[in-house]
Each structure stands twice: as structure tokens, then as C-alpha cells.
Amino acid sequence: MAKYSTVDEYMAGLPDDRRAVMQALRRTVTEAAPEASETIAYNMPALRLNGRFLLSYEAFKNHYSVFPWTER
User: Fold this and answer.
1) pLDDT of residue 59
2) Partners of 49 in the beta sheet?
3) d(CA 70, CA 72)
4) Are strands 44-49 and 52-59 parallel, antiparallel or unpaired?
């Protein structure tokens, strides 16, 4: 499994069919939190705001997941 250092690198490594969905998801989450910065967390694309984790998202073989932040 490749280790990604940027979201662009992660996206480039996806198969075409999954890349299209993930790029749409990326646009949605970055538009929803325009002040957040993109990063890689647990080898997945993630968003942080003021240093705090907001969410990460991943393209699996048979599904997509969004992992929101929670205090609990």
C-alpha cells in the first residue's frame, strides 16, 4: 500500500472510476469548510481547521466512507 503525503498524490493513485467520485466528494467537503486545510491522516484525505481534525474520507474497493470528528 502506498503512503501518501498529499491529497493530490492520493487522488492520482486512485482508479479512474473511484477518482471521479472522490474528486466530487473533495469539492463538497472543501466548499463546506473553506477555511479548513487539506492534509493526509491515517493515509486518507482529511480536513483540519485551526489544527483540529474535522473529517477524513476514503475510497474502498466496494464503498466510500466519510469519518467525521467527534469528541467521544
Assistant:
1) 95
2) 52
3) 5
4) antiparallel
